[in-house]
Specification:
Layout lengths: L1 E4 L13 E11 L5 E13 L6 E2 L15 E8 L15 E3 L19 E5 L4 E4 L5 E9 L5 E11 L10 E5 L2 E8 L2 E10 L4 E9 L9 E10 L2 E11 L8 E4 L4 E4 L3 E10 L5 E9 L5 E4 L2 E4 L4 E9 L9 E10 L6 E11 L3 H15 L3 H4 L3 H25 L4 E3 L4 E4 L5 E8 L6 E7 L8 E4 L4 E4 L4 E10 L8 E10 L6 E9 L6 E9 L8 E10 L5 E10 L2 E11 L4 E9 L7 E7 L1
Parallel strand pairs: 8-16, 18-25, 27-34
Antiparallel strand pairs: 1-4, 1-6, 2-3, 2-5, 7-9, 9-14, 10-13, 10-15, 11-14, 12-13, 15-16, 17-19, 19-23, 20-22, 20-24, 21-23, 24-25, 26-28, 28-32, 29-31, 29-33, 30-32, 33-34, 35-36, 36-39, 37-38, 37-40
Helix pairs in contact: 1-3
Length: 601
C-alpha cells in the first residue's frame, strides 16, 4: 500500500506526465546485502493529477527457495521512461509507505524445501529364497542450488508384527558414519552422504533373510532421507517365495560291510545340499531285518553346496546266522517339504569271528579282568593290546641294541689307494673306544679275503684304550710281483676287545697300478743249419720277462710259411726271469720262413 504525494503545479506543470508506472520487485540478497536474484515483480499505473493518493501493488503465488543466511527485500520505485528522465528529474511524485495509517508489508508463507528426492532404480518388490538376498539401488538427488549433507535412515518391518524380523540384516553401501540403534523393537541403520547441487548419490541396500524364516513372509524396507534442502522416503518389499526353491540332495554312500555276529558297525554317509536354498534335512534309516540302528545326527541344516557327514550304526544281533544280508536304507527328507527326499542303500553281511577278532576279544576280556575298562572305557582292550605291543617292542629294541652295540669305532678318511708292485700303500685308521670302560683290543686282518700276490702288515696287533680314547693304527698293503696286473685287494681290518667277543671291522681297497709284464725273445738258434725237406729242425731261443709282475699263461707259437708247426702253452715267467724254449719242426720243400709269436693264452 503506497501513499503518493504529487508535485505542485508550478513553472514545470506543463511537463508533468499524465501517467506514471510504479514497479515493485521482490529480490533475494546475500549476507553482504548484494542482490542475488529477482524473485518476482509487478507494476501499476497511476493517472495524474486525478489519481488517488492511495494505490496498491500485489505480488502473489511466489514459489521460491531462499538459501540459508540470505535476506528477502521488497523494492518499490517509479519506472520513468528514459525519454523523460532528465526533464522530470526532481518532479517525480513522492512514494510513502509503511506509515501508521497505511502500513506496507510482505506476507510470506514458509515451507520446507523439497530439493531432496529418492528414486528406486531396482524393482520395488522382490521375491527371494531364504538363502538368497534382495538388492535395492536407490538414487538420491539434490535438485537445489546448494550442496547438502543428507541423513539416511533404513529399517526393516515385519508386516505381520510391526517389528524388525529376527535374523534379517541390511548391508548398506554408499553411506558414511553408519550407526545402528533399536527403538521399540525396530532396528534402525543410519548414515549420511554428501550431495552437491544438481547432483546425485547412489545407495545400495542388500537384505538377507533369516535362515529359519518361513516362506510367504513379507517384509517392508523403509528408506528415509532428510537434509536441509528437503526430505523424502520410499518403501520396498521383500517376500520369501517357495516357488523359487529347487530341492536336490546328493548322497555319497560308504562301502558295504561284513560285520561279526553280535557286533556293530558304523557307516558314514556324506550328504550335499545340491539345491539352491538353505534347508533342514531329517535323517532316517531302516533295516530290512529290523536290526537296531542308531543315527547321529537326526537333523541337520545345510546351505547350498554345503556338505555334512552322518553316522549310522547298525547292530548285528547275536542270533543272526552267518551269511545273512541286511539292506540298510538311508533316507534324507526335507523339513520344508516332506515330499522332497532322496535315499541310498548299503548291504551288511553277518560273519563269524576271525583270528584277529578273537585276539581283540581276548584283550577285551583281559582288560576287563584287570579293570582297565574303568580307565579306558570301551577302548580298554585296544589299550591293553597297545601296552603289550609297546612292552614287546621295548624288549626287542633292547635286544637289538645289545646286538648292535659297538665296542669300537674305526675311522679311515682315505680308504681307496693305488699302489705299484713292490711299493707300499699305508692306511691311517683311527681306533676309538666309545665305551665307559678300559678295553684291550686285538688287531688282525681277515686273511681269507686277501688275494694271491699281496702282503699285509700290521705294526701293532694289540692296543689298550681308556674310555673315549683314540689311537691311530697303520695298515700296510704291498703288492708283489705275483699280483694280478689287473687285480685289486679288499683288506678287512678287524679289532676285537679281549673283554668282549664282538668284532668291529673296516675295509680298505688297494688297486694295482702300473703292473705289466714285458716279454722279449733273444738268442734264436736253429739246428741243423743245413737241411732238406722232411728233416726235423730244432729252434731254440730265450724268452725274457723284463716287466715288474709275473707273466702267466703265456703261449709260444712257431709257424713255417704261415702254417703252425709247434707251440708251447701255460708258460709262467716271474719278473726279471727267463725261460729257454726248444721247438722242433719239420722242414718243407723250398724256402722255410719261420715266425715265432708270444701271446697270452
Amino acid at each position: 500500500c503506497l501513499h503518493i504525494d504529487y508535485p505542485s503545479y508550478g513553472e514545470n506543470a506543463g511537463i508533468v506526465l499524465p501517467r506514471y508506472k510504479i514497479k515493485a520487485v521482490l529480490v533475494e540478497l546475500d549476507q553482504g546485502l548484494n542482490e542475488v536474484s529477482t524473485i518476482a515483480s509487478n507494476f501499476t499505473y497511476v493517472i495524474t493529477p486525478f489519481a488517488k493518493n492511495i494505490t496498491y501493488i500485489e505480488l502473489n503465488n511466489v514459489d521460491h527457495v531462499v538459501e540459508k543466511g540470505h535476506t528477502i527485500a521488497l523494492d518499490v520505485k517509479w519506472d520513468v521512461p528514459h525519454l523523460f528522465g532528465d526533464l522530470l528529474k526532481g518532479m517525480e511524485p513522492t512514494l510513502k509507505y509503511n506509515c501508521t495509517r497505511y502500513p506496507s508489508y510482505v506476507e510470506l508463507s514458509l515451507f520446507d524445501p523439497n530439493d531432496i528426492k529418492l528414486e528406486l532404480e531396482s524393482p520395488s518388490q522382490q521375491k527371494i529364497l531364504r538363502s538368497g538376498e534382495a538388492t535395492f539401488k536407490i538414487k538420491l538427488s539434490n535438485e537445489g542450488k546448494g550442496e547438502d549433507t543428507v541423513n539416511v535412515t533404513i529399517w526393516l518391518i515385519d508386516l505381520d508384527f510391526a517389528v524388525t524380523p529376527a535374523g534379517w540384516n541390511c548391508a548398506i553401501d554408499g553411506l558414511s558414519d553408519e550407526i545402528t540403534y533399536v527403538e521399540e523393537n525396530i532396528r534402525y541403520n543410519r548414515g549420511r552422504t554428501w550431495v552437491g547441487a544438481k547432483e546425485s548419490a547412489y545407495i545400495t541396500v542388500t537384505v538377507t533373510p533369516s535362515e529359519s524364516a518361513e516362506y510367504g513372509k513379507k517384509v517392508a524396507l523403509n528408506i528415509y532421507a532428510e537434509g536441509e534442502r528437503g526430505r523424502d522416503n520410499i518403501t520396498c518389499y521383500i517376500q520369501l517365495s517357495e516357488e523359487l526353491r529347487v530341492f536336490n540332495v546328493e548322497i555319497i554312500k560308504p562301502k558295504d560291510a561284513k560285520v561279526r555276529i553280535g557286533k556293530s558297525h558304523t557307516y558314514t554317509f556324506e550328504i550335499k545340499n545340491a539345491g539352491n536354498d538353505i534347508d533342514t534335512f531329517i535323517i532316517q534309516a531302516n533295516s530290512s531285518n529290523n536290526w537296531d540302528i542308531d543315527i547321529e545326527p537326526h537333523e541337520i541344516k545345510l546351505a547350498p553346496n554345503e556338505r555334512a557327514k552322518i553316522n549310522v550304526t547298525i547292530h548285528v544281533p547275536s542270533y543272526a546266522k552267518e551269511g545273512t544280508e541286511d539292506f540298510l536304507t538311508f533316507i534324507v527328507v526335507s523339513k520344508t517339504n516332506s515330499s522332497d527326499k532322496n535315499f541310498s542303500t548299503v548291504i551288511t553281511t553277518a560273519i563269524a569271528p576271525n583270528v584277529i577278532q578273537l585276539i581283540a576279544e581276548f584283550f577285551d576280556s583281559a582288560a576287563g579282568a584287570l579293570h582297565l575298562d574303568k580307565t579306558f572305557g570301551p577302548s580298554a582292550g585296544m589299550a591293553l593290546m597297545i601296552i603289550v605291543l609297546v612292552i614287546v617292542a621295548i624288549v626287542i629294541l633292547v635286544i637289538v641294541y645289545m646286538i648292535k652295540r659297538e665296542f669300537a669305532e674305526l675311522i679311515c678318511l682315505d680308504r681307496i689307494r693305488e699302489v705299484e708292485p713292490g711299493k707300499e700303500a699305508i692306511y691311517n685308521i683311527t681306533l676309538r673306544n666309545p665305551t665307559r670302560r678300559r678295553l684291550t683290543y686285538k688287531v688282525s686282518v681277515n686273511e681269507e679275503k686277501i688275494p694271491d700276490g699281496w702282503k699285509i702288515k700290521i705294526p701293532e696287533d694289540k692296543v689298550v684304550l681308556d674310555p673315549s680314547e683314540s689311537k691311530e693304527l697303520k695298515l700296510i698293503v704291498k703288492p708283489t710281483s705275483e699280483v694280478d696286473p689287473e687285480g685289486w685287494a679288499e683288506v678287512e681290518l678287524q679289532v676285537t676287545p679281549a673283554e668282549k667277543s664282538k668284532t668291529t671291522s673296516i675295509s680298505v681297497l688297494a688297486i694295482v697300478k702300473g703292473a705289466k709284464p714285458k716279454l722279449k725273445i733273444t738268442g734264436v738258434f736253429h739246428w741243423p743249419k743245413i737241411f732238406k725237406a722232411g728233416d726235423t729242425i730244432t729252434t731254440r731261443f730265450t724268452l725274457r720277462n723284463d716287466g715288474n709282475v709275473t707273466a702267466r699263461d703265456i703261449s709260444v707259437v712257431l709257424s713255417v710259411n704261415g702254417v703252425e708247426k709247434n707251440r708251447v702253452d701255460g708258460i709262467s715267467i716271474p719278473a726279471g726271469g727267463y725261460a729257454d724254449i726248444k721247438l722242433p719242426w719239420v722242414a718243407v720243400e723250398g724256402r722255410n720262413r719261420l715266425r715265432i709269436v708270444v701271446k697270452k693264452a
